[in-house]
Automatic annotation (TrEMBL):
Protein name: NAD dependent epimerase/dehydratase
InterPro entries associated with the record: P-loop_NTPase, Sulfotransfer_4
Transmembrane segments: 256-276
Cross-referenced SUPFAM superfamilies: P-loop containing nucleoside triphosphate hydrolases
Gene source species: Penicillium brasilianum
Length: 290
């Protein structure tokens, strides 16, 4: 099967990767993303993928996730050359490696110049954090009216598809509230952490416990860098996650509703459902469009 990444031109230059932050999402990765940029790295994280690179990178991501977790898809799994093509302009990866698993970690573990950081936390807290963030996005994606609106904006559609694919992989097909949901999430988390520690060379791996807090002193000595004068970025929380997602969704939903209206569907009814389902923030947005 022809892959999207194979149809894209080769980059003029590929930056050598210096640091791989192998921590799963909801393990302080957004703060780490900001921190690594502050230290001078060109850093790739899902936020960079969504908010800066947009549709082409979302397509890379969705294709890579599909190949990684759906063996029946017929899509060849990404290798190091594919990762380099996708993230050519970056020398640090945060969070993305956890989704790619052993294929990415093993590829860069063979490079003696790459250092690794892995943040751990209590699995039960991680599972609840996933459900309080990504779980909510998946519920939205699979419910009316988003299950209709997403089809009228390609970037919104890719974003929702990726979240569903990722959550399916993490939760083994369960959904928040299912009897075995948190157990499946914890199993995934424990399996991933165990695999990462086995694949990454111990002398190039720095492990941080999230419950003990994360600061410059945890990462700068390991990376051989001076400690900045600025404070370490504030940890992410569900409220910040929701604010970031809302900032991405608003213009995409506006565009989707306009396109939906253009094909003569009852836009007003969908807008009413959207305001009922997603609250006064979205209602205010829709009123501003009318």
């Amino acid at each position: 099967m022809s892959r999207y990444i194979d149809q894209c031109p080769a980059p003029a230059k590929v930056r050598p990767v210096k640091v791989v932050v192998a921590s799963p999402s909801r393990s302080g990765t957004l703060s780490m993303f900001i921190a690594m940029n502050m230290l001078g790295f060109k850093t790739y994280h899902f936020a960079e993928c969504v908010l800066e690179k947009g549709l082409p990178h979302l397509r890379f991501f969705r294709e890579a996730i599909t190949a990684q977790y759906n063996r029946l898809s017929g899509v060849k799994r990404y290798n190091k050359a594919d990762f380099e093509k996708w993230m050519a302009e970056y020398d640090c990866m945060v969070e993305i490696p956890s989704y790619m698993g052993k294929d990415l970690l093993g590829a860069y573990a063979d490079d003696p110049d790459v250092k690794f950081i892995l943040t751990e936390r209590q699995p039960e807290k991680w599972a609840r954090s996933v459900n309080n963030s990504a779980g909510g996005v998946v519920k939205m994606a699979e419910s009316f009216p988003m299950n209709i609106l997403k089809n009228f904006d390609p970037t919104l559609c890719e974003f929702m598809r990726i979240n569903i694919l990722i959550y399916d992989a993490l939760a083994r097909g369960t959904r928040p509230g299912d009897p075995d949901n948190e157990e499946e999430l914890c199993t995934y988390y424990n399996d991933y952490i165990k695999m990462a520690k086995e694949v990454i060379p111990a002398d190039r791996l720095h492990i941080i416990t999230l419950e003990n807090g994360v600061d410059w002193e945890d990462i700068c000595p390991f990376l051989g860098l001076p400690i900045p004068d600025e404070p370490y970025p504030m940890p992410n929380d569900p409220a910040n996650f929701k604010k970031m997602v809302d900032g991405f969704l608003k213009p995409r939903m506006r565009a989707a509703i306009i396109r939906l209206g253009a094909v003569a569907l009852p836009t007003l009814g969908v807008a009413g459902w959207a305001s009922f389902k997603y609250g006064p923030t979205l209602l205010a947005l829709l009123k501003g469009m009318m």
